[in-house]
Amino acid sequence: MTEHDDTPPDAGIPVAEGVASGIDTEYEIGQDNIDGQLGPFGFDIHNPVFLISGLGVVAFVFYTLALPDQAGIVFKAMFSFVTGTFDWFFLLVADFFVLFCLFLIFSPWGSVRLGGSEATPDYTYVGWFAMLFAAGMGIGLMFYGVSEPMTHFSTSLGGTTIEDGLRTDWAPLGGAVGDEAAATRLGMAATIYHWGLHPWAIYAVVALALALFSYNKGLPLTIRSAFYPIFGEAVWGWVGHVIDIIAVIATLFGLATSLGFGATQANAGLNELFGLPVGSTTEVLLISAITGVALISVLRGLDGGVKILSEVNMGLAFLLLFFVLLAGPTMFLLNNFGSSLMAYFEFLPALANPFGREDTNFVQGWTAFYWAWWISWSPFVGMFIARVSRGRSVREFLIAVLLVPSFISVIWFSVFGGSALHQVINEGYTVAQEASLELKLFKMLDVMPLATVTSIIGIVLVIVFFVTSSDSGSLVIDTVTAGGKVDAPVPQRVFWCVFEGAVAIVLLLSSGGLASLQSMVISTGLPFAVILVLMCWAIMKGLIDERAKLKK
Amino acid sequence: MFKKIMVPVHHDQKEKLGRALTVAAEMALRYDAEVCYVSVTSRAPGPSGRTPEAKTDALAAFAADQAQRLDIARVSSHLELNHDPTTQLGAALLAALDTVGADLVVMASHMPGWSDMVTGNHGGWMASNARCSVFVIRD
């Protein structure tokens, strides 16, 4: 018995700040934890989540290394099955999440405050917003900002081809054969569809569920808490263990694979700029350097590390955005912003329609792929967003997590994509169009003034976005594997951060390991998609309960 | 000589503090000083409480219990809320020291579970950074 256990059990359990309606559970946070000392390092870990997650990761890595061909085939088959068979399901649930979030913004339940009616926000708008963005999709903007509008433009322009009654082209919807203006609009609309409301609605649902059940209901800050309304007390047993373990493994592999691919891409950029050799030696050095910086950030903590890096990166990203806007065809870009937004709303119903689609390749290869990807990332991003969002009202939270990032994405893609499209259509410069994915951004910046400076900023952005993913990921994994304790000893965070870098290096050095494990991670999007729908129900139940208490 | 003694306690593992608590109590008796128990914690639910209020109450109850057990005349408590207690403990303790206005800190050299090779020991850190006297108790 600890001394605080001697205090009467009613020593203030629910009553958050002001009014909140807590959940009464027998579970005591940290009751399944083992803590102790291993040499000079203290630890405080959840039994069995920590151990099984760690060993599970090692087992998967061994499997991919020992039987690379079989693993590749199994994971890829799983992936094509998931995105090929359930494409309609992904589209349908993502639409539902957007509508659900929009409904909550305008509903009376939007006024419920995360952390109790009198709670005050932990972070200022700038710091909060920078962290939301860096964790959510920072890195994607760097790589797809130029390439995705360009790809959709090209395929749309190419029009449709039909073989044996099936479309074999990759154009979105019906394409726009030979019509450059229409192809631009369709390309921009399709890109914004993939980076706008839908991905953020997915994150918002997970983050809202976790924040609500932790800050208002008093459950530990870990994925299983969002399932309390569904499974009841069983979430503290194996049901919950399995949920947390899957979330940890998906997060760790998601981070490790993107770290591996990120290193490949940063390597290509550095080769382009400074002639650094492309190869596994450089890539391993890059992963080690990124992990090293992430480690410093992890040791400095949430405020001293992640937050500062996120703010620096947001500043740099805006700088680059304004530079491209001013140095590029400014009037064209401003027009493009307006027309892209219009095009988005015009094509949204058709793009978001889950049934009877003819553009199979586009729906399965792009949309379903993205949705599964966002969903498999949602435990990580959602948990991180929840961690920094205490004190916001549901309405404020959803506006900031859903509408503001979507709006910024529209600006970003219309400026970067627009500049590249302008180069192709009006200037006849097609180098960026033909370059490989990781080089498109740099090739586009190449023909603008100060190309060296902007390319360096680009590479710094890429690297720092990876650092912020890596350290916020370590923070999230650490909290989950410590049973929801946010103050577990530092060596645990260090462990996860280093482990993640090591997994990335091992996979990078194996042939095809990265790609096959990424397929596996994205495949976890399917079970999570079902889980997310249940989460919406749990959120609704929790909010109704919360507001009823507030009215009393 | 001393009017208010600040005693940092780990909010979840108060039983492991050992001699620091006894020393603080004895000094309070000797100088007729008030003992203020300070705990650094996040707003997220934890073992000692699921809300900041519950954690505050738990700490106050701990202080009352200490007063009774060790015969201390005047006790108080202060919960210092921090986003990331693991890494910002030192700074948070300094902030708490400012808030409670103590003129002596009595603390264990290594807070259980907090210490490790990377972050060093907080007792030593406080001794070099606090503006008042710091009594570091080695366990």
Describe this structure in words.
The complex is a heterodimer of chains A (552) and B (139). Chain A is mostly helical and 552 residues long. Chain A is built from 19 helices and four strands. Chain A has helices at 49-66, 68-85, 87-106, 125-136, 138-158, 180-195, 197-216, 228-231, 238-274, 280-327, 330-351, 360-388, 394-427, 431-434, 440-446, 451-481, 490-509, 513-523, 525-551; strands spanning 33-38, 41-46, 162-163, 166-167. In chain A, the strands form two sheets. A two-stranded antiparallel sheet of chain A has the order 1-2. A two-stranded antiparallel ribbon of chain A has the order 3-4. In chain A, helix 5 crosses helix 13, helix 6 packs across helix 11 and helix 9 (238-274) crosses helix 17 (490-509). Chain A starts with 32 loop residues before the first strand and ends with a helix. With 139 residues, chain B is α/β, with parallel strands linked by helices. Chain B has one domain (4-138): HUPs (Rossmann fold), CATH 3.40.50. Chain B has a five-stranded parallel sheet with strand order 3-2-1-4-5, sandwiched between helices. Chain B is globular, with a radius of gyration of 14 Å. Chain B starts with a strand and ends with a strand. The model of chain B is unreliable at 112-118 (pLDDT under 50). The chains are: A mainly alpha (552), B alpha/beta (139).
Structural key phrases:
heterodimer, A: 552 residues, mainly alpha, two-stranded antiparallel sheet, two-stranded antiparallel ribbon, 72% helix, B: 139 residues, 5-stranded parallel sheet, 4 helices, 5 strands
Fold blueprint:
The complex is a heterodimer of chains A (552) and B (139).
Chain A: E1 33-38, E2 41-46, H1 49-66, H2 68-85, H3 87-106, H4 125-136, H5 138-158, E3 162-163, E4 166-167, H6 180-195, H7 197-216, H8 228-231, H9 238-274, H10 280-327, H11 330-351, H12 360-388, H13 394-427, H14 431-434, H15 440-446, H16 451-481, H17 490-509, H18 513-523, H19 525-551
Antiparallel strand pairs in A: 1-2, 3-4
Chain B: E1 4-8, H1 19-31, E2 34-41, H2 52-70, E3 75-81, H3 85-100, E4 104-108, H4 122-129, E5 133-137
Helix pairs in contact in B: 3-4
